[in-house]
Each structure stands twice: as C-alpha cells, then as structure tokens.
C-alpha cells in the first residue's frame, strides 16, 4: 500500500478497505492524461516562479521517462498504489528525488482527477466523432448509388408507400448527423480546464489558470472551483449522446435483422460479418446486428448509473464520483466498437435490389397515388380514399395488385379512371412525383446527397 496521505494516520488501512477504495484498477487507463496534466501544471508553476526552471526541467524529464516506460511496458502499473495519481507521483519521487515532491504544489487530486477525466473524455469524443463521420460517409455512398432502388416504406411494419433505398439510408444519415453534432456541442461546452481549483476552494498560490488551460488546449479555465471538482455533467451528456447513438444503431440493427430474414431477403450480409450455427448447417446469422442491439442496454445502464450516482451528492467532491469511470469507459468502448463494426457490416452488405423492388410492387404501396390520381381529376380526397379502398378490396379478393387490375374493373368502381392510371401508379412515377425536399424523388434525394457530401468535405475531426 503506497498512500499519499499517511501523515495523520497511526494505523495501517485495513486491506479490504484499501481494495474497496482504490481506483488504480481502472484509472490507470488515463496515465497519459495524468502525465500531460502534470506537465502543464509544472510549466505553469515555473512560469509563476513557484518552481525554479531547474526543478521544472527535472520534473518534466522524470514524467517523460515514466510515460515512455509505461507505454513501452517497462513500468507496469501495479495495485500497490491507490490510484494513477499516486502511482505517477511516487514513481517520479523514486526517479528524481526531492524535486518530485514539489509536483503536487497548488493542486489536489480532486482537480487532478477532474482534469484527467476531462482530457480522457475529450480525446474519446474526437475518436467517436471520426467513427460517426465514417458511418455518414458510408451511408452517403450507399445513398448515391441507390437513388432509383425502389423499396417499400413501412409504417407499423406494414407496407405503406414506395420509397428508395437512398431515402431509407438518408433517414439514418440524418440521425447520425445529429449524433455528430451532439458530440461537437458537448466538446464545446466541456472544454474548460478545472486545474487550479484545488480540493474545492482554489489555492493560495498565484497560479496562472489561463496559461494552464491554454497549454492543455482548453478554451479557458473553469469559473467556479467547487463546481469544477464536482461537475460530471459532461459525462452525463456524453453518455446521453452515446445512448442516442446506440438507440439509432439498435433500430438500424433491427431493420437489418428483419431485412436479412428469409421472409424479406432484402440484404445479404457479407460472410465476414455473419456467423453460422453449430448444428444447423444452412444458417447464416446476423450476429453483429443482434449484438449491437443487445449492447445498447449497457450504454443506457451507464447513463442511468451516473445520473443516480450524482443526484444525491452535496458540493463539492465526494468519493461517490469515483464511480463515474468504469461504466463510462465501458460505454465509450462499447459505442466505438459498435459504430466500427456496424459500419463495416453496412459497407460490405449486398442489397437485393430486385427483391426490394418486387416487394414494393406488392402490398398496395401505390394506393395513395391512385387516390391522388382521382384528386387530380377533381374527386375530393375523402371520396377518392373510399374509392381506392374499394379497389384494394377487389384486388384482395382476386389476389392481384392494382397494376394488374383491368381498366374495365377500375371503371366499374369509378368512371373517372382512364388508361393513364397505370402510369400514374407505377413505382417509378410514385417515387418521382415525391419531389419536395426530404421526399424520396431522385432529384430531391440527389440534392441531399450533394449537400451531405459538402457537409462531409467540410468536417475536420
Ligand atoms: N480516485 C479518485 C476519483 O476517481 C481520485 C480523487 C481522490 N480524491 C479524494 N479526495 N480522495 O475520484
């Protein structure tokens, strides 16, 4: 047990208490962030004359050595230290002696851990953004190739109106674009440096908090030291954004699972992204989509957990907050893994265009268009709706589609119908006529694809 705070204690900590209290098992994940934060802190202390330049250089040299040794596996992070902060400080003192003991001047582990977590989350947001952008690029590529791939659009999982694959993928593009923007917003809001807040009430040293913030790439220092050491809003915001990412991925997974079923057969998942059965040789299962759908619960759980942890914590730091880490790490890793795998599955998936088109021709997806045809010839919409209802009933009884119904039969139900009804209810017409922005008409969709391309070209992660 190597502790930073033994001075006022006369007894050793009970081993079980030590184990329960320690966070090294998981906060070792941010050894790099911890060293980066310490390096900036030391530079600031020297600039303010609190440390000498020689002390600064000695400490920075020591920290660089620790970073290199941990990275290259020469210095294992072991559980004899309570947390990553103690580990780095103890190792520094071992290496450089007394100068190392000055590292923690004007700092508390409370503002230190607040900084480490922020640096970690900030780095991860950048990686998450890059993965979402990759997903967006793949979606837009599929969209650009399928402006005229007809398929049924569904409501209540029942065929509703014809759309295109581009249009369907475009819906997901919008969802992931909002996810991307949410990540950008969180980054902007959280990007203030807590270092210099001390335990809760700042410090008595003449710290230059602007300088530290600038060295670490923050927009500036935070403005209230009590809030700074006990704010985990940004973790909650991130987990909420990731829950939404997962909700989108899970809905998409559900669709892929349905589309991949024998009954639908809209897609063929690449062999590299599906698995077989140990007993049924014919099986090719959409396990990736199912796992993504399943893992969504873990990310929601992390959000619920941190919300619950934070709700009863009086100001300022309390040890409960140590619980912010493990689930956040897991949620981030889960979301990253799911985004990467789903994108890979999507990019390699084969869309069965003929099956989709055939499916769109069934199920009376053009019934609304038949009603619109009547409206175009002066029939009020409510009456047109009733007439087409009768057409559909006729077709169901005769097991045919509206396209297969004879003109004479049309005329029996309404004399308004003419030969041009067939063209008016063809899939091509149904889709092409939906040309307002946001609708599946190929011209409207092409504009969206172009705008998406410009959006993606503009992004700098
Ligand atoms: N391991 C602690 C955490 O994750 C670090 C801060 C410790 N501060 C304290 N006052 N015990 O929150």
From TrEMBL:
Gene3D superfamilies in UniProt: Fumarase/aspartase (C-terminal domain), Fumarase/aspartase (Central domain), Fumarase/aspartase (N-terminal domain)
Where in or outside the cell it occurs: the entry states: Cytoplasm
- What EC number(s) does the entry state? 4.3.2.1
Q: Where is the Argininosuccinate lyase C-terminal domain?
A: 364-432
* Keyword line: Amino-acid biosynthesis, Arginine biosynthesis, Cytoplasm, Lyase
Instruction: Please state the pathway this protein functions in, per its UniProt record.
Output: Amino-acid biosynthesis; L-arginine biosynthesis; L-arginine from L-ornithine and carbamoyl phosphate: step 3/3
The record's InterPro entries line, in alphabetical order, gives: Arg_succ_lyase_C, Argininosuccinate_lyase, Fumarase/histidase_N, Fumarate_lyase_CS, Fumarate_lyase_fam, Fumarate_lyase_N, L-Aspartase-like
Reactions the enzyme catalyzes: 2-(N(omega)-L-arginino)succinate = fumarate + L-arginine
Pinpoint the Fumarate lyase N-terminal domain residues.
7-299
Q: Which domain of life is it from?
A: Bacteria
Chief place where the protein resides: cytoplasm
> GO molecular function of the protein, one example?
argininosuccinate lyase activity
Record HAMAP family: Arg_succ_lyase
The UniProt entry, under PANTHER family, shows: ARGININOSUCCINATE LYASE
- Which family, according to UniProt? Belongs to the lyase 1 family. Argininosuccinate lyase subfamily.
In Swiss-Prot or TrEMBL terms, this protein is called Argininosuccinate lyase
